[in-house]
Request: fold
Amino acid sequence: MSTLADLNPEQRAAALHRGGPLLVVAGAGAGKTLTLAARVAQLVLDGADPQRLLLMTFSRRAAAELGRRVGRLLHEALRLPPTTAAPVLPWCGTFHGIAARLLRELAPRIGLAPSFSVLDRADAQELMGMTRHALGLSMTAQRFPQAGTCLAIHSRAVNSQAPLPELLPSTYPWVAQHEAALRQLFDAYAADKQRQQLLDYDDLLLVWWHLMQQPQLAAALAARFEHVLVDEYQDTNRLQAGILLALQPDGRGLTVVGDDAQSIYAFRAAELRNMLDFPGHFTPPARVLTLERNYRSTQPLLAASNAVIALAPERFAKTLWSDRASSARPRLVTVADDAAQARWVADEVLRQREQGLTLKRQAVLFRTGHHSAALELELTRRNIPFVKFGGLRFLEASHVKDLLALLRWAHNPRGRLAGFRVVRLVPGLGPASATRLLDAMAASDDPAAALRGWKPPAAAALDWAALRTTWCALQGGTRRWPDELQLALTWYQPHLERLHDDARVRRADLDALAQIAAGHGSREQFLTELALDPPEASSDEAGPPHRDEDYLILSTIHAAKGQEWNAVSVLNVVDGCMPADMATGHAAEIEEERRLLYVAMTRAKDSLNLLVPQRFFVTQQRQWGDRHLYATRSRFIPPDLLPHFACVAPEAGPDARLDLDGPPLLDVAAALRGTWR
Reply:
């Protein structure tokens, strides 16, 4: 069987391209993953060494899916027996995962200990907060940004490669007067990480980028990979683009795939110009192939989506098409306010369900999480189960952080943040005792010896001895992975029961963590990958379990990217919400909001409803009366686009209708005169 058998002509051209750089502009629902997998499989069949093929995506799940598809295509094309494994791609992963692997390998040559730890976002914020406090910035006369804001500014500066004098006025104007203090804070934060042999999420790319600025190292890394392929290129930042261009400076063997119309992550420093300017980086320019056949949506839905994005001033021109004919245009539904919007959506969801469309095949999308508040109340009132995507991540649950801190501290004894958390779990050891121990370990050439010789307060001696024994066993590597995690669990169990009333529920998370651990070859790999791509769910933040067999999907548009449902409703398609009122300061921000609406519209397969409430209550002042704002339909759907939609203006309910043909109901003039008598 050929790897090209299921491809259309444009997909086949992408899979067979050889030689210079290639840009594949893949429209929504155009079979991008299949095309990329077929290209990789065809390269291997044509003689490319899988060991020298680098494939990078933006999530571990996407990387795993690509690896599975490539393996399946190769298995079928090579006609291998069912018991024979297909070739694997050892360098298939996320940008940050590949960076961590390379830096671990090169650590001794770049001033890092091979046991360096990778901070997740929550721990990075905590360390930023500690550094901020140590510099006295938490006690300034003027309001100073909180640790989370400081970390966000630091992350944006790193990933956008924008200096603070340029970044602050445009993106964080309310903290621009603190530029000097922020510079001092970021220098101290970097020094703290270096002392403790820590890297945060953004450091992985930053250090890799700096490596690629060294000609000798850049040449060695470039020679390692014959082919470099990147998915979702529209979401890359300047660091990532710089790394790629340094890996393949002449473009030979470089393939990038993406959709400029779905670039919606500027708040993470994603740079759309990376994709728009890609062809011109090379001489001759990169070949551009466009995938326009859509396998998801009906033609009327695509016609409306095409019309919305066609108004973007700068883009790769493409017109999505489908052979899925339909007479149903997307609906533009005007309602009175957010309460009426919630009622209309709930009615529509139940109507679709009665026609055989399960709740799980329907979704309600919105620009920002709080936009669904009224709908959530209405769904609860009507007993319509739903799941809302968003919230805290798994690693932010306190019991998960406790266990991982023990593993991280054993792996990196100079990791002060993890050590401080673990030591304070021991009854009788407070912040002062923990600081004394960590100071002693930091001052010693042998931190493990310093820990073994440390004397705790008498009241904590017994519990300290248990921790010391466990830590030494973990640090000494006397057990194989994942048995080390079971050892840590045995130590932590009594503390879990002491600290949490719902210990049994939380233990389920830790058991799930043990299952995840079994899929990794070492503690180092487990800790790094978990920090870079953690699970989303945790019983620490979960509500009652869903015992219904079906539930409606509620999601922000950002979280919905890459997903699809048969029926989709989009809330608040009005100016002020889409585009958001905070995103109308610059033309680039407005254009990203246009792309956000396009992403929402292209999630639908059969049915699409765009809701347009006419007024919004001013929530903060509702107790003082009917304070509200009037809204207008989103500027992204001007009048000349209305023929692509079925415009719906629901009538008032039967209980709101009055009989105007009967006798007079009220003599208004008499009533008014009577007021003053």
In short: Confidence is low (pLDDT under 50) at residues 537-546, 619-625. The chain is about 45% helix and 10% strand. The CA atoms of residues 498 and 569 lie 46 Å apart.
